[in-house]
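Hi P.,

Sorry for the delay on this. The queue was packed all week, but I finally got your sequence through. Input first:
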Amino acid sequence: IGYAGMQVRQCLWTGGFFLTLDWYKTQMSAVVSNKLAQDVLSGFAAGATGTALNCWTDVCRSVVQKKALADTFDASIPRPSALEPLNPGPFFGAAAEIMSSRGLTGLYSGVGPKMVHLGGSGAILAVLMPRFKSMWFDMMGLY
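Then the structure:
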């Protein structure tokens, strides 16, 4: 349900995270000397940035998915085709509907907890990714 919306959501978070991670690392190196702390703080900030870009998509995805699930319980509504999840129309339609009825704050409802959650995920990713990459390359003798 809502595959197109999920892809937009994921592209915005991943793009926001990786586009800003190195910049945040550079900024943190001037403030904190501990490399692990730099990675944690910069990963959290990059994850929060990704969330700032993709929060509206999360709200729209939830609306589209809830409606699709509710429709399954109404026998009078015809079943959608198997290709319906690929249609971005309902996703962007939900965005327009939320924006017109509740404004930008409606599209960003719940942004605080999402930033904490995905900022934390970004911190974990920023800490583990370079360390596991180094371990892998060392193990494979690729350096």
